[in-house]
Amino acid sequence: MLDLNCKDSVILNQWHPLSSLEEINKGVVHKTRLLDASISYGIDDEGTLSTWLSNDHLKAGQPYNAAAITDPLPVKHAHGYLWTCLGEPPETLFSFSEFYESDRRNVPTGVFGVHVSAGRAVENFLDMGHFPFVHTGILGEEPHTEVKEYDVEVSETRDEVVATQCQFYQPQAALASKEGAMVDYIYRVPHVNCALLYKSSPTDESRNDVIYLFLQPMGQEQIRAHTGMCVVDDMNSHEDIRYFQQTIFGQDKPILENQYPKRLPLDPRAETPIRADKTAIAFRRWLSRKGLTYGVIPVEA
Amino acid sequence: MKLYDYELSGNCYKIRLFLSILNKSFETQTVDFYPGQEHKSPPMLALNPLGQLPIIEDEGKVLRDAQAILTYLAAKYDETGEWYPLQDPDRLGEVAQWLAFADGITGTASAARLHDGLFYDLDVEAARAGAHRLFRILDEHLWFAEQAGQSWICSGNHPTIADIACFPYVILSEEGGISRQDYPAIRRWCDRVKRIKGFIGMSGVFPTSAAA
Ligand SMILES: N[C@@H](CCC(=O)N[C@@H](CS)C(=O)NCC(=O)O)C(=O)O
Ligand SMILES: [Fe+2]
What is its EC number (chain B) (predicted)? Predict the structure, then answer.
């Protein structure tokens, strides 16, 4: 076992995202934080990836040589990201089949540091109620503030929280939208720190655009939020799609950073029902059952 | 007029905000600042060798630096003459003084925000300490101004481009871990700025203080 500050095996035994593969400069050492530990990573010209607990021999910015890494951590290369694990790595990572469809545009839209716990950020992502007030004129607009009844379940086969039949009026659901429309949403939380949303694509009604949020807990109250889109859109440039998503995320940031407490309370009685809607309640229960303690306020026994 | 723009940049926001207040239309060209670093690309360096935003192009003139651009826009397009009081040497000097101060806020509060939000490699503790030092000075200044019945950074009854230049990185400071809790006069001034006719927000800045 590694000597780490974080002792929560639930969070240690997960794959955690460190960087979009697209963004890793080849041949140099990069450094970041994960679960209060300093982690280094690199990729060489052959595509060999490694991650390791940072040490003084291989500092950030120095040349990366895979052969020089004596204590590598587990790595996974999936869904466009580099993932690592500081405990027992699970055999598989959640599925994300759309990512691998040949006509998809996969656009990592940036990684942002946010002073909040991962759980709070996931919950904000799942909450449609804030659209008209925070993303005014884009993802929502008064007086269309109603969140219609929808379904939530914890899928037994896949161990994930799924919300379906969600509907919301959106003035500009995506960059490719020409007018306001009722938009259908599906949310998935297939990983304690990752969430995906599926919404009908403005260019092809039969398919869904996917927006994802993969969170890297740097500490209990600080995250790196990896955001991205996987869309059916042959009109807009990579940069325009990215810019649209960054505008949205920039609007969420002060909301996230003003959450109090910064950690997610798992006790269903801890917060008023407005803030803890159906999906949030299911998500908190699911985390509770897993026994998560990192970045949350566990239910008192 | 064209603004080379990036939504999350507070310095670009200074220009968008002021043009909105002046009710002057303009086009924008989005620069892939993050993560693309497009502002460091050869075509952008040809426009601004410092590799920074904002930059404007207006009737063939290319201008960089938010404070310089505000000065130019006010002198050229503000028909009231209030935002940059050319005829009043005392107030003009004050405006220049606080425009320089605004760049100091960029060097500290904005740096801390870039560190925390976009992972820039810099001494964040020094940046935060520097920002608190400037905020303390601004807060005291605004407190005395209020005591004298004045609402804005420079003397007189009308806001100036100094208010526009100082506002963005003050209001975004929490993204860099800099609380405004100890600066009540700054908080009241922020609310007044938000009530200026033509005020617009940006991602991270809400038109009213509802989110705070
Ligand atoms: N003094 C300049 C500072 C501008 C500045 O720092 N711009 C940032 C964006 S908000 C930038 O381009 N930074 C890149 C760099 O400094 O390398 C101004 O006020 O315009
Ligand atoms: Fe949001």
Answer: 1.8.4.-
Helix axes B184-194, B124-147, angle to 10 degrees: 80
pLDDT in tens, A72-112: 999 999 999 999 999 999 999 999 999 999 999 999 999 99
Domains of chain A are 9-84 (2.20.25.680), 98-297 (3.90.380.10)
Residue of A nearest to B116 (CA): A113
Q: What is the least distance, in Å, from the CA of A11 to any CA of chain B? A: 23
Per-domain residue ranges of chain B: 2-77, 89-194
A212 bridge partner residues: A196, A228
Provide block-wise average pLDDT over 10 residues at a time, chain B (212 residues).
Answer: 97 98 97 94 98 98 98 98 97 98 98 97 97 98 98 98 98 97 98 97 83 40
In CATH, B2-77 is 3.30.450.40: no
Interface pTM, i.e. ipTM: 0.91
Indicate the residue of B7, B34, B204 with minimum beta-carbon distance to A254: B204
Phi, psi for A152 (deg, rounded to 5):
-130, 140
For the domain B89-194, what is the CATH code? 1.20.1050.10
Determine contact: A33 vs chain B, CB below 8 A.
no
B70-80 in b/e burial notation, b at 16+ Cβ within 10 A? bbbbbeeebee
